[in-house]
Amino acid sequence: MPIIEVNEVRKAYGGRLAVDGVSFHVDEGEIFGILGPNGAGKTTTVECVEGLRVPDAGTVRVAGLDPVTDREQVTRLLGAQLQESGLQPKLTVREALELYSSFYPEPADRWALAERLGLDAHLDRRFGKLSGGQKQRLFIALALIGNPKVVVLDELTTGLDPRARRDTWRLIEEVRENGVTVLLVTHFMEEAQRLCDRVAVIDKGRVVALDTPAGLIDRSTGSTVISFTPSQPLPDTGELSRLPGAVSVSADGPDGRITVHGDDDTADAVISLLAAHGITARQLRVLETSLDDAFLDLTEQDT
Ligand SMILES: Nc1ncnc2c1ncn2[C@@H]1O[C@H](COP(=O)(O)OP(=O)(O)OP(=O)(O)O)[C@@H](O)[C@H]1O
Protein backbone atom coordinates (compact mmCIF):
# COMPACT_ATOMS: atom_id res chain seq x y z
CA MET A 1 0.00 0.00 0.00
CA PRO A 2 1.46 3.41 -0.89
CA ILE A 3 2.36 5.54 2.10
CA ILE A 4 3.71 8.37 -0.07
CA GLU A 5 1.97 9.44 -3.29
CA VAL A 6 3.45 12.17 -5.46
CA ASN A 7 1.35 13.02 -8.47
CA GLU A 8 2.37 15.39 -11.29
CA VAL A 9 4.13 17.79 -8.92
CA ARG A 10 5.51 21.00 -10.38
CA LYS A 11 7.53 23.66 -8.63
CA ALA A 12 9.23 26.72 -10.09
CA TYR A 13 11.56 29.21 -8.45
CA GLY A 14 11.14 32.66 -9.97
CA GLY A 15 9.73 31.28 -13.21
CA ARG A 16 12.42 28.57 -13.52
CA LEU A 17 10.98 25.04 -13.26
CA ALA A 18 12.85 22.96 -10.69
CA VAL A 19 10.34 20.09 -10.63
CA ASP A 20 8.39 19.45 -13.80
CA GLY A 21 5.58 16.93 -13.33
CA VAL A 22 7.14 14.39 -10.97
CA SER A 23 5.05 11.33 -10.03
CA PHE A 24 5.94 8.26 -7.95
CA HIS A 25 4.61 6.34 -5.00
CA VAL A 26 6.42 4.68 -2.12
CA ASP A 27 5.00 1.52 -0.57
CA GLU A 28 4.96 0.99 3.15
CA GLY A 29 8.18 -0.68 4.32
CA GLU A 30 10.18 0.25 1.23
CA ILE A 31 13.53 1.97 0.99
CA PHE A 32 12.85 4.22 -1.99
CA GLY A 33 15.73 6.11 -3.55
CA ILE A 34 15.73 9.40 -5.43
CA LEU A 35 18.82 9.64 -7.56
CA GLY A 36 19.89 12.36 -9.94
CA PRO A 37 22.60 14.83 -10.90
CA ASN A 38 23.14 18.16 -9.12
CA GLY A 39 20.23 20.52 -9.46
CA ALA A 40 17.89 17.80 -10.80
CA GLY A 41 15.11 18.73 -8.37
CA LYS A 42 15.57 15.95 -5.78
CA THR A 43 15.59 18.14 -2.68
CA THR A 44 12.68 20.26 -3.92
CA THR A 45 10.68 17.07 -4.48
CA VAL A 46 11.29 15.68 -0.99
CA GLU A 47 10.68 19.12 0.54
CA CYS A 48 7.21 18.99 -1.06
CA VAL A 49 6.73 15.57 0.59
CA GLU A 50 7.83 17.01 3.94
CA GLY A 51 5.45 19.96 3.59
CA LEU A 52 8.35 22.42 3.60
CA ARG A 53 7.46 23.62 0.12
CA VAL A 54 4.07 24.07 -1.50
CA PRO A 55 3.87 22.59 -5.02
CA ASP A 56 2.66 25.00 -7.75
CA ALA A 57 0.64 22.11 -9.20
CA GLY A 58 0.04 18.41 -8.53
CA THR A 59 -0.66 16.60 -5.29
CA VAL A 60 1.34 14.98 -2.51
CA ARG A 61 -0.13 12.59 0.05
CA VAL A 62 1.57 11.03 3.05
CA ALA A 63 -0.62 8.28 4.52
CA GLY A 64 -3.49 9.95 2.67
CA LEU A 65 -2.81 13.37 4.22
CA ASP A 66 -1.76 16.63 2.56
CA PRO A 67 1.64 17.67 3.98
CA VAL A 68 0.70 21.37 3.74
CA THR A 69 -2.91 21.49 4.94
CA ASP A 70 -2.53 18.56 7.38
CA ARG A 71 0.93 19.70 8.46
CA GLU A 72 0.62 18.81 12.14
CA GLN A 73 -0.51 15.23 11.52
CA VAL A 74 2.09 14.72 8.81
CA THR A 75 4.85 16.01 11.12
CA ARG A 76 3.94 13.23 13.54
CA LEU A 77 4.09 10.57 10.83
CA LEU A 78 7.17 11.76 9.03
CA GLY A 79 10.67 12.16 10.44
CA ALA A 80 12.95 14.45 8.48
CA GLN A 81 16.68 14.63 8.69
CA LEU A 82 18.02 17.93 9.97
CA GLN A 83 20.66 19.79 8.03
CA GLU A 84 23.97 20.47 9.79
CA SER A 85 22.95 24.09 10.33
CA GLY A 86 19.79 22.91 12.11
CA LEU A 87 21.56 22.18 15.40
CA GLN A 88 23.40 24.55 17.71
CA PRO A 89 27.06 23.42 17.90
CA LYS A 90 27.04 23.87 21.69
CA LEU A 91 24.07 21.56 22.27
CA THR A 92 25.12 18.20 23.72
CA VAL A 93 23.82 14.93 22.30
CA ARG A 94 21.76 14.46 25.48
CA GLU A 95 20.23 17.95 25.20
CA ALA A 96 19.42 17.50 21.52
CA LEU A 97 17.67 14.17 22.22
CA GLU A 98 15.70 15.70 25.12
CA LEU A 99 14.75 18.81 23.15
CA TYR A 100 13.55 16.91 20.09
CA SER A 101 11.63 14.30 22.05
CA SER A 102 9.73 17.14 23.78
CA PHE A 103 8.25 18.06 20.36
CA TYR A 104 6.25 14.82 20.11
CA PRO A 105 3.29 13.53 22.11
CA GLU A 106 4.54 9.94 22.08
CA PRO A 107 8.28 10.01 21.47
CA ALA A 108 10.47 6.92 21.18
CA ASP A 109 12.62 5.91 24.17
CA ARG A 110 15.47 8.35 23.48
CA TRP A 111 18.07 6.49 25.53
CA ALA A 112 17.29 3.18 23.80
CA LEU A 113 17.55 5.00 20.48
CA ALA A 114 20.89 6.52 21.49
CA GLU A 115 22.16 3.07 22.44
CA ARG A 116 20.93 1.52 19.18
CA LEU A 117 22.69 4.23 17.19
CA GLY A 118 25.91 3.98 19.21
CA LEU A 119 25.53 7.44 20.71
CA ASP A 120 25.27 6.38 24.36
CA ALA A 121 29.01 6.91 24.93
CA HIS A 122 28.82 10.47 23.59
CA LEU A 123 25.77 11.86 25.40
CA ASP A 124 27.68 14.74 26.98
CA ARG A 125 29.64 15.64 23.88
CA ARG A 126 28.69 18.85 22.10
CA PHE A 127 27.28 18.57 18.59
CA GLY A 128 30.08 20.74 17.18
CA LYS A 129 32.68 18.28 18.53
CA LEU A 130 31.18 15.13 17.02
CA SER A 131 32.78 13.37 14.05
CA GLY A 132 30.95 13.34 10.70
CA GLY A 133 29.66 9.79 11.31
CA GLN A 134 28.50 10.64 14.86
CA LYS A 135 26.65 13.71 13.58
CA GLN A 136 24.86 11.60 10.98
CA ARG A 137 23.92 9.04 13.64
CA LEU A 138 22.50 11.86 15.76
CA PHE A 139 20.51 13.13 12.75
CA ILE A 140 19.08 9.64 12.26
CA ALA A 141 18.20 9.46 15.98
CA LEU A 142 16.45 12.86 15.84
CA ALA A 143 14.58 11.86 12.67
CA LEU A 144 13.35 8.72 14.46
CA ILE A 145 12.59 10.26 17.83
CA GLY A 146 8.92 10.94 17.07
CA ASN A 147 8.34 7.25 16.21
CA PRO A 148 7.63 8.13 12.55
CA LYS A 149 6.17 5.77 9.95
CA VAL A 150 8.29 7.42 7.24
CA VAL A 151 11.75 8.90 7.44
CA VAL A 152 13.21 11.23 4.79
CA LEU A 153 17.00 11.22 4.52
CA ASP A 154 18.70 13.65 2.12
CA GLU A 155 22.37 13.07 1.24
CA LEU A 156 22.88 11.34 4.56
CA THR A 157 26.29 9.85 3.82
CA THR A 158 27.84 12.72 1.85
CA GLY A 159 31.20 13.58 3.38
CA LEU A 160 31.53 10.34 5.36
CA ASP A 161 34.50 8.03 5.03
CA PRO A 162 33.79 4.56 3.56
CA ARG A 163 33.58 2.87 6.97
CA ALA A 164 31.19 5.47 8.43
CA ARG A 165 29.15 5.25 5.23
CA ARG A 166 28.81 1.48 5.56
CA ASP A 167 27.88 1.80 9.25
CA THR A 168 25.18 4.32 8.28
CA TRP A 169 23.85 1.94 5.61
CA ARG A 170 23.50 -0.79 8.24
CA LEU A 171 21.58 1.65 10.43
CA ILE A 172 19.22 2.51 7.59
CA GLU A 173 18.59 -1.20 7.01
CA GLU A 174 17.81 -1.58 10.71
CA VAL A 175 15.41 1.36 10.53
CA ARG A 176 13.52 -0.42 7.76
CA GLU A 177 13.59 -3.73 9.66
CA ASN A 178 11.75 -1.86 12.41
CA GLY A 179 8.92 -1.14 9.97
CA VAL A 180 9.80 2.44 9.00
CA THR A 181 9.53 3.43 5.32
CA VAL A 182 12.63 5.26 4.08
CA LEU A 183 12.73 7.93 1.36
CA LEU A 184 16.40 8.42 0.55
CA VAL A 185 17.93 11.13 -1.62
CA THR A 186 21.38 10.11 -2.76
CA HIS A 187 24.18 10.88 -5.17
CA PHE A 188 25.85 7.52 -4.61
CA MET A 189 25.04 4.71 -7.01
CA GLU A 190 26.58 2.16 -4.63
CA GLU A 191 24.28 3.41 -1.88
CA ALA A 192 21.20 3.14 -4.10
CA GLN A 193 22.23 -0.32 -5.33
CA ARG A 194 22.91 -1.60 -1.83
CA LEU A 195 19.92 -0.12 0.01
CA CYS A 196 17.03 0.75 -2.25
CA ASP A 197 14.16 -1.51 -3.25
CA ARG A 198 13.26 0.92 -6.03
CA VAL A 199 14.85 4.05 -7.38
CA ALA A 200 13.41 7.05 -9.22
CA VAL A 201 16.06 8.69 -11.40
CA ILE A 202 15.30 12.41 -11.68
CA ASP A 203 16.89 14.61 -14.31
CA LYS A 204 16.01 18.24 -15.08
CA GLY A 205 12.94 18.06 -12.86
CA ARG A 206 11.48 14.91 -14.42
CA VAL A 207 11.46 11.22 -13.52
CA VAL A 208 13.44 9.62 -16.35
CA ALA A 209 13.32 6.07 -14.95
CA LEU A 210 11.75 4.26 -12.03
CA ASP A 211 12.73 0.68 -11.32
CA THR A 212 14.64 -1.64 -9.02
CA PRO A 213 18.42 -1.04 -9.17
CA ALA A 214 18.78 -4.34 -11.10
CA GLY A 215 16.01 -3.27 -13.50
CA LEU A 216 17.77 0.05 -14.17
CA ILE A 217 21.00 -1.77 -14.99
CA ASP A 218 19.18 -4.23 -17.28
CA ARG A 219 17.56 -1.47 -19.29
CA SER A 220 20.81 0.40 -19.88
CA THR A 221 22.12 -0.21 -23.38
CA GLY A 222 24.70 -2.97 -23.53
CA SER A 223 24.41 -4.16 -19.95
CA THR A 224 27.20 -6.73 -20.46
CA VAL A 225 30.69 -5.79 -21.61
CA ILE A 226 32.83 -8.52 -23.17
CA SER A 227 36.47 -7.74 -23.88
CA PHE A 228 39.23 -10.02 -25.14
CA THR A 229 42.37 -10.16 -27.24
CA PRO A 230 41.90 -12.65 -30.12
CA SER A 231 44.76 -15.14 -30.60
CA GLN A 232 44.62 -14.22 -34.29
CA PRO A 233 42.67 -11.53 -36.19
CA LEU A 234 39.04 -12.30 -36.91
CA PRO A 235 38.31 -12.83 -40.62
CA ASP A 236 35.39 -10.35 -40.40
CA THR A 237 34.84 -8.19 -37.28
CA GLY A 238 31.42 -7.29 -38.73
CA GLU A 239 30.32 -10.76 -37.60
CA LEU A 240 30.57 -9.58 -33.99
CA SER A 241 28.19 -6.65 -34.52
CA ARG A 242 25.61 -9.05 -35.98
CA LEU A 243 25.61 -11.31 -32.90
CA PRO A 244 22.40 -11.43 -30.82
CA GLY A 245 22.07 -8.43 -28.48
CA ALA A 246 25.31 -6.77 -29.66
CA VAL A 247 25.05 -2.98 -29.27
CA SER A 248 28.57 -1.89 -30.18
CA VAL A 249 31.95 -3.36 -31.10
CA SER A 250 35.27 -1.55 -30.84
CA ALA A 251 38.85 -2.64 -31.41
CA ASP A 252 41.73 -0.76 -29.87
CA GLY A 253 45.33 -1.05 -28.81
CA PRO A 254 48.28 -2.54 -30.69
CA ASP A 255 47.24 -6.08 -29.70
CA GLY A 256 43.80 -5.64 -31.35
CA ARG A 257 41.83 -5.97 -28.11
CA ILE A 258 38.12 -6.09 -28.85
CA THR A 259 35.29 -4.77 -26.66
CA VAL A 260 31.70 -5.79 -27.30
CA HIS A 261 28.73 -4.21 -25.50
CA GLY A 262 25.70 -6.48 -25.44
CA ASP A 263 23.86 -8.81 -23.10
CA ASP A 264 24.34 -12.30 -21.64
CA ASP A 265 23.40 -13.90 -24.99
CA THR A 266 26.06 -11.81 -26.72
CA ALA A 267 28.72 -13.16 -24.36
CA ASP A 268 27.77 -16.77 -25.22
CA ALA A 269 27.62 -15.96 -28.94
CA VAL A 270 31.09 -14.31 -28.91
CA ILE A 271 32.63 -17.43 -27.40
CA SER A 272 30.87 -19.70 -29.93
CA LEU A 273 31.91 -17.49 -32.86
CA LEU A 274 35.54 -17.47 -31.79
CA ALA A 275 35.47 -21.24 -31.27
CA ALA A 276 34.01 -21.71 -34.77
CA HIS A 277 37.03 -19.82 -36.19
CA GLY A 278 39.48 -21.71 -33.95
CA ILE A 279 40.39 -18.42 -32.23
CA THR A 280 41.15 -18.24 -28.52
CA ALA A 281 39.94 -15.27 -26.45
CA ARG A 282 42.96 -14.17 -24.42
CA GLN A 283 42.43 -12.20 -21.19
CA LEU A 284 38.71 -12.58 -21.59
CA ARG A 285 36.68 -10.32 -19.27
CA VAL A 286 32.90 -10.33 -19.02
CA LEU A 287 31.59 -7.48 -16.88
CA GLU A 288 28.11 -6.37 -15.91
CA THR A 289 27.55 -2.65 -16.26
CA SER A 290 26.99 -0.89 -12.97
CA LEU A 291 24.26 1.43 -11.79
CA ASP A 292 26.82 4.18 -12.53
CA ASP A 293 26.70 3.30 -16.24
CA ALA A 294 22.91 3.05 -16.18
CA PHE A 295 22.72 6.46 -14.50
CA LEU A 296 24.95 8.09 -17.11
CA ASP A 297 22.87 6.44 -19.81
CA LEU A 298 19.63 7.76 -18.33
CA THR A 299 20.63 11.30 -17.45
CA GLU A 300 21.56 13.85 -20.06
CA GLN A 301 25.03 15.30 -19.88
CA ASP A 302 25.29 19.07 -20.19
CA THR A 303 27.90 19.91 -22.77
N1 LIG B 1 15.19 28.35 -2.86
C1 LIG B 1 15.52 28.33 -4.15
N2 LIG B 1 15.45 29.45 -4.92
C2 LIG B 1 15.75 29.44 -6.23
N3 LIG B 1 16.17 28.35 -6.89
C3 LIG B 1 16.27 27.19 -6.20
C4 LIG B 1 15.96 27.13 -4.80
N4 LIG B 1 16.16 25.85 -4.38
C5 LIG B 1 16.56 25.15 -5.45
N5 LIG B 1 16.64 25.94 -6.54
C6 LIG B 1 17.01 25.54 -7.91
O1 LIG B 1 16.13 24.51 -8.32
C7 LIG B 1 16.81 23.48 -9.02
C8 LIG B 1 16.60 22.14 -8.29
O2 LIG B 1 17.25 22.23 -7.02
P1 LIG B 1 17.22 21.03 -5.97
O3 LIG B 1 17.98 21.47 -4.76
O4 LIG B 1 15.83 20.57 -5.78
O5 LIG B 1 18.03 19.93 -6.76
P2 LIG B 1 18.84 18.67 -6.23
O6 LIG B 1 18.60 17.62 -7.24
O7 LIG B 1 18.47 18.38 -4.82
O8 LIG B 1 20.32 19.20 -6.31
P3 LIG B 1 21.64 18.78 -5.46
O9 LIG B 1 21.90 17.35 -5.76
O10 LIG B 1 22.67 19.69 -6.04
O11 LIG B 1 21.30 19.06 -4.04
C9 LIG B 1 18.26 23.93 -9.10
O12 LIG B 1 18.44 24.56 -10.33
C10 LIG B 1 18.40 24.90 -7.96
O13 LIG B 1 19.39 25.86 -8.25
Automatic annotation (TrEMBL):
Pfam families reported for this sequence: ABC_tran
Occurrences of domain ABC transporter (ranges): 4-229
Keyword tags: Antibiotic resistance, ATP-binding, Nucleotide-binding, Transport
Keyword Methyltransferase: no
Keyword DNA-binding attributed: no
An annotated Gene Ontology molecular function: ATP binding
SMART domains: AAA
Its membrane topology: Peripheral membrane protein
Protein name as catalogued: ABC transporter ATP-binding protein
Organism of this sequence: Streptomyces salyersiae
PANTHER family xref list: ABC TRANSPORTER ATP-BINDING PROTEIN (PTHR42711)
